[in-house]
Amino acid sequence: MTFRIVGAEAEAKLNWLDLTDALAAGHALPRAEVGDTLLRHGPDTLLTRSAWIPGMGIAVKAATIFPGNPAKGLDAIDGAVNLMSADTGALEALVDFKLVTKWKTAGDSLLASRRLARSDAETILIVGAGAVARSMVEAYSAAFPKARFHVWARNPDAARTFADATGATPEPDLEAAVRRAHVIATTTMATEPLIRGVWLQPGTHLDLIGAYRPDMRECDSDTFARARVFVDARVTTLHHIGELMVPLKEGVITEEDVAADFYDLPSGRFTRRTADEITLSKNGGGAHLDLMTARYILKAASG
């Protein structure tokens, strides 16, 4: 059996706009079947996320989370992405785990912004200063070449380090920065809301990225009340992530208030209607997006 190993060197051949086009095309195929498993041994975790899309393939992304690794000089998160043929099940490629995760996460929100942010958006606020925040600067720069980046983080030193590395302007006041922003990306591990709906100005677009557990939220319920709400996939967000679970439980929004997910892209429903409306897209990830991204990376690396 012959398969390809695609490593970090493939990144030189990748393009953010091409990736979002590939993700959009993937959502025109039959709906993915997905499944997750979680194993724990003390503080250590093995998470496997699987997806099968007829006409595209099968992917199994195995992630190990070992919190004690940094003390040993090792990464806390590692893993592998196995890409297999939908026709035969044969292994086609092992694709670099970190490469797929980076491009999937940022590409997901970039696709949403390309459909929902105003075309004249120039002021982009990144909330958080970690690895995902840095990849969002790369991704947004591809779609918004005139963008001016700003960053806010709980730790001012982290914000300054981020600013030095990316050219962003550090912001000491989150409320003031939100009120000036055209696009806002939240990339934190917050469990209590940071963004308040009352701060949002007409025409703002929000990409909510960080929250992924039922106990995590980056914005308050008023944000959902004021915004037109979108998600990347209803099945991986509505009843799995606190960001949506709380306003749904409170009755602030209903499931019918979620305007569209990426499977509505072909119909044109995933789009901004007016210049003044506030739009919000929740990035929930999902193995189907790992599959689409891994397939794009393999194709680009082979070109």
Topology diagram in text:
Blueprint: E1 4-6, H1 16-26, E2 33-41, E3 44-53, E4 57-65, E5 77-84, E6 91-95, H2 97-116, E7 123-127, H3 131-143, E8 148-152, H4 156-166, E9 169-170, H5 174-180, E10 183-186, E11 205-208, H6 221-226, E12 228-231, H7 234-237, H8 242-250, E13 258-260, E14 279-282, H9 287-302
Parallel strand pairs: 1-6, 7-8, 7-10, 8-9, 10-11, 11-14, 12-13, 12-14
Antiparallel strand pairs: 2-3, 3-4, 4-5, 5-6
**What structural class results from the helix and strand content?**
alpha/beta
Question: How would you sum up the global shape?
Answer: globular
Share of helix, binned: 25-40%
> What count of domains describes the coordinates?
2
CATH class (first level) name of the largest domain: Alpha Beta
**Helix and strand pattern:** EHEEEEEHEHEHEHEEHEHHEEH
Question: Spatial order of the strands in the main sheet?
Answer: 9-8-7-10-11-14-12-13
| Uncertain ranges | none
Rg from alpha-carbon coordinates: 19 Å
By CATH, the architecture of the largest domain is named 3-Layer(aba) Sandwich
Number of strands: 14
Give the number of helices: 9
Name the CATH superfamily assignment of the largest domain. Answer: NAD(P)-binding Rossmann-like Domain
Task: Give the termini distance in whole angstroms.
Answer: 22 Å
Folded structure, characterized:
The chain has 303 residues and is an alpha/beta fold. Helix content is 32%, strand content 25%. The chain has helices at 16-26, 97-116, 131-143, 156-166, 174-180, 221-226, 234-237, 242-250, 287-302; strands spanning 4-6, 33-41, 44-53, 57-65, 77-84, 91-95, 123-127, 148-152, 169-170, 183-186, 205-208, 228-231, 258-260, 279-282. The strands form 2 sheets. It has an 8-stranded parallel sheet, sandwiched between helices. Strands 1-6-5-4-3-2 form a 6-stranded mixed sheet. The longest helix has 20 residues, at 97-116. The protein starts with a strand and ends with a helix.
